[in-house]
Automatic annotation (TrEMBL):
Residues 191-302 form the Protein kinase domain. The keyword Translocase does not apply. This is Protein kinase domain-containing protein. One of its GO terms (biological process) is cell surface receptor signaling pathway. Pfam families: MCAfunc (PF19584), PK_Tyr_Ser-Thr (PF07714).
Amino acid sequence: MDIAKLAGVDAVKLVVMIVQAAQAVRHNKKTCQQLVHHVKIIGDLLKKLQNSEMMQQPEIRNGLNELEEILRQAYMLVTSCQNNSYIYHLVMSKRQAEQFRVLQNRIASCLQVFPLISHIDTSDRLDQILEIIYPTRSQTVKEVPGLITGCLNPSTTICSHRDASLKDLSHLITESFKFNLFQLIDATNNFSHENQIGQGTFGCVYKGRLHNGLEVAVKRCFESPSSPNQIDVQDLEFQNEIHFLTKLQHTNIIKLVGYCIHGKERILVYEYMSNGSFDTFISGMFKDNKTASGLACTVPDN
Ligand SMILES: Nc1ncnc2c1ncn2[C@@H]1O[C@H](COP(=O)(O)OP(=O)(O)OP(=O)(O)O)[C@@H](O)[C@H]1O
């Protein structure tokens, strides 16, 4: 097939075509399977992002166009491996090997960009949620507890995302909630076993008391895995949680009091909930017929 004939085919369709084509290859079977493995990952990620409004943004579209171009080449390469001719294989094998190498590199670079795209997408969605919760153009952060030295001045006004860039906003907020590690060591009796009140997927939770007397639940995240990419993803998830909870201050949302980043340590500090466990609290919220979403929050009915 001529590559020009693939011009209108979108990325998801190209992924399907590549997977099918790989089933009929005669040469380079193993290399084709490796390529298909990565192409399938891309396909799954694309399906997840498909309905996101962000996919229509010009900079994302440009990236997608490039991705489609890579996938078209991948399809052509895989179909060329279906050729049965021994002579063809002999003549082309060196060239194909080089093409596979180049494509694998380009695909690997694409895969590195996905966590970033997904991070931007999550931030966009959070902004949309905020818009529902706080429809006013701006709001004063009066409810943010003034617990830490250098905490936000209560009169500080946070503009809505229409007025300030998300980057500036999240920087402004997250900087104001920072704890240092020693404050948390002090609060939790050096993360002692006696202070441990639970454990979740991401880390152990300790009961603690801050200098000002406030009881807190301190979630000390498990150490990041050693692969550099995985650390990036885990850090993005950590930042997302800070970003999300610091922006959402509502009576039915567990308040994030602060966070700490120190070397490999990633720690989140929440208000302590004395009225039973986290699960009890969540099921209680459901009994109230309120909507709950991902991070155990409820959204006002109005
Ligand atoms: N703010 C809090 N106040 C009191 N106890 C808490 C608080 N947050 C967590 N806990 C306790 O720590 C346990 C673990 O909580 P964590 O949020 O880490 O995980 P989870 O939500 O239970 O599970 P997962 O992380 O898998 O979603 C909870 O079951 C609860 O007993």
